[in-house]
């Protein structure tokens, strides 16, 4: 195997990995994921309230579900603040010289 072939294979692996990372990022930010998580949160809490706590589950499970949705909407804002002000202050560029 030549050096060029080896480099071509390595680049192809890196590009494939980058596509997977982009796909994962897109999924993490997608509305489909948020809605599914909200539905699963609602159903799990409603079932818990119905069979374990024995209170009206279908209305009481709405509050945590909406809370979860709001948290997924606000976390990107806090991530930007953290990245800009807190994380960037810890990572200082190296000075060459």
Poorly predicted tracts of residues: none
| Share of helical residues | over 70%
Strand content: under 5%
User: Sheet with the most strands?
Assistant: none
Number of domains: 1
* Total strand segments: 0
The structure class reads: mainly alpha
Mean pLDDT: 81
- What's the number of helices? 4
Order of helices and strands: HHHH
For this entry, what is the oligomeric state of its chains?
A: single chain
Q: How far from one another are the termini?
A: 39 Å
Instruction: Categorize the overall geometry.
Output: elongated
Rg on CA atoms, Å? 22 Å
Task: Tell me what you see in this structure.
This protein has 97 residues and is mainly α. It has one domain (3-90). Helices cover 86% and strands 0% of the residues. It is built from 4 helices and no strands. Helix 2 (31-53) crosses helix 4 (62-90).
Describe the SSE topology.
Layout: H1 3-29, H2 31-53, H3 57-60, H4 62-90
Helix pairs in contact: 2-4
Short description:
With 97 residues, the protein is mainly alpha-helical.
For the structure shown, list the relevant keywords.
single chain, 0% strand, mainly alpha, 97 residues
């Amino acid at each position: 195997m030549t050096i060029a072939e080896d480099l071509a294979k390595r680049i192809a692996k890196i590009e494939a990995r980058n596509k997977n990372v982009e796909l994962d990022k897109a999924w993490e930010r997608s509305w489909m994921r948020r809605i599914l998580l909200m539905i699963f949160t609602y159903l799990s809490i409603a079932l818990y309230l119905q069979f374990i706590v024995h209170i009206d589950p279908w209305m009481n499970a709405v509050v945590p579900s909406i809370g979860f949705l709001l948290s997924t909407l606000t976390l990107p804002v806090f991530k930007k603040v953290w990245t800009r002000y807190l994380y960037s202050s810890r990572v200082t560029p190296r000075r060459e010289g």
